[in-house]
Fold these 3 entries.
Entry 1:
Amino acid sequence: QPVLTQPPSSSASPGESARLTCTLSSDINIGGYNIYWYQQKPGSPPKYLLYYYSDSDQGRGSGVPSRFSGSTDASANTGILVISGLQSEDEADYHCMIWSNSGGVFGGGTKLTVL
Amino acid sequence: QITLKESGRTLVKPSQTLTLTCTFSGFSLTSSGMGVGWIRQPPGKALEWLALLYSDGDKRYSPSLKSRLTITKDTSKNQVVLTMTNMNPVDTATYYCARRPRVGAHFDPWGQGTLVTVSS
């Protein structure tokens, strides 16, 4: 079963960019997977943000601002969620997910604090 | 508007079977490629995918929980039911159902979730 590792916490100031990472275990190559990102605010269910496979194969959920974007760092086997122009409302938990041969796998989540 | 809502017992005793119902509206589980999944989240912890049911009846389960899970659908009632046997206190979590659309492999939207506590 693959493992997705996310830093427990991250912080950035309003107006700055936040870069949240999701590192896949070494037994799988990020190049073969869509990375899905979800945002979860306290007391609410997760909300789908976007998926990223490549620059030519990516998409955002309905109503998700273009401030949210995805990328990967193949050398680090890592998926990345970039939030530009941070706003206070972006403070939330962010979860990454992939579909492996054995089913859905979520990362541990990153709590983003907007300072 | 697409909505999903989870319902079922919120307090179960160890060794009992949990039955949760996801009642949805705004889409049909007869549409080709559509799916409904279950995901849980223990308090303060990570999301964990449990099961997925497709419109064609195909079912997928988390390998670590497969022996305890069953997912079924009642298309006429727009419901998907998840049963989990032999409940344990570590299964205490908020259980969510979510739609997996025809195009894409993401979950969107999610139900509000229901907190299930396992305690004697």
Entry 2:
Amino acid sequence: DIVMTQSPLSLPVTPGEPASISCRSSQSLLHRNGNNFLDWLLQKPGQSPQLLIYLGSNRASGVPDRFSGSGSGTNFTLRISRVEAEDVGVYYCVQALQTPRTFGQGTKVEI
Amino acid sequence: EQLVESGGGLVKPGESLRLSCTVSGFTFSRAWMSWVRQAPGKGLEWVGRLKSRGAGGTTDYAAPLKGRFIISRDDSKDTLFLQMNSLKTEDTAVYFCVHLIYSGAYGVGEPQFASWGQGTLVTVSS
């Protein structure tokens, strides 16, 4: 199974400031077709998770452009250019290369 | 899209429970579906995935759950099921029904967790 490791696990943020979360996989998520099979999810307090970024760097529908994903192979980063209050919650990376699907431990972002 | 889970509740260790997920807003018969669970205060754990009938209708499960959990579907009722047998206390969790969608090339890698239900709580306790 592919092991996903996130850091940090807790991230205090200040509104208006940037923030970033790291995700590493135990094996490369770069497919021969050039896509990185890594997605990011956000679970806001009391809500179900929602898709934020897919295939490494593509924002899901309705996701503000302050969110960006980057990286390749085994190292990935989620960045928020300017944190807003509504961005609090737990962020998960998840590999989309193969089953079993595996998630990072989650990063709790708090103001 | 809307996904509504039901069937959760309190059961004793060793008992069985069947969860349902009724969907609307998309063509369920063509959909790949998944169950994901979240133990209280913990992270997300993949339970398994069921392909559409057109893609073979096959299932895939997390190894520790294979043999105890069964995912099935009734396309005539736009409903996904999760049959859970021989339940253990560690199966206590909120169970989410998820619609999977390929955002990239179809059939390459695994699809994205596109839409989630609100979840249903299963508590296994004596």
Entry 3:
Amino acid sequence: SYDLTQPPSVSVSPGQTASITCSGGKLGDKYTCWYQQKPGQSPVLVIYQDMKRPSGIPERFSGSNSGNTATLTISGTQTMDEADYYCQAWDSRTGVFGGGTKLTVL
Amino acid sequence: EVQLVESGGGLVQPGGSLRLSCAASGFIFTIYWMSWVRQSPGKGLEWVASIKQDSTEKYYVDSVKGRFTISRDNTKNSLYLQMNSLRAEDTAVYYCVSQSSSNWSFDFWGQGTLVTVSS
């Protein structure tokens, strides 16, 4: 089965840049999405097709994907960005999520 | 406004059955794939199943194959998940999710319904 690996936690100071990685075999050959989930809320799509932002998602969210690693970057991180982030890709018509990364802004 | 409203969750004994429903509104239901994604308490997200617009294609995670059945009724803008032979490890919040037809991203999520499998 296909696996996606994320760091369990990432910390960043307000105003700084946060980077969250997602690793998987030949992940760069697949499209990666990123979802944000705040406590007690449903997930929200923040990046699709590696680097595209849905309507309403701030420009400070960006993504990249190459080789075996996809990266979600949050520039000028705000306290409201504190949440769990999940990467996701498709492998042979099977949906796969990474284990999630807790982003702490302090 | 897009709305996905799940119902049908609850407490069920191991080996039992449950049928989840999802009522969709605010978007053109018939042009979207639809999916179920679950989240065990305190854990991460897990894709469960997806269904094509016309129900001709259905995909499942290995752990539910043969036990769960995804279906939809385009005349009612509704999505369903029939869950049989339930196990303790199926305990989770189940989300109804719209899936983009062009890039398969999970665009919109419902609020979720909790399924608890316990004796």
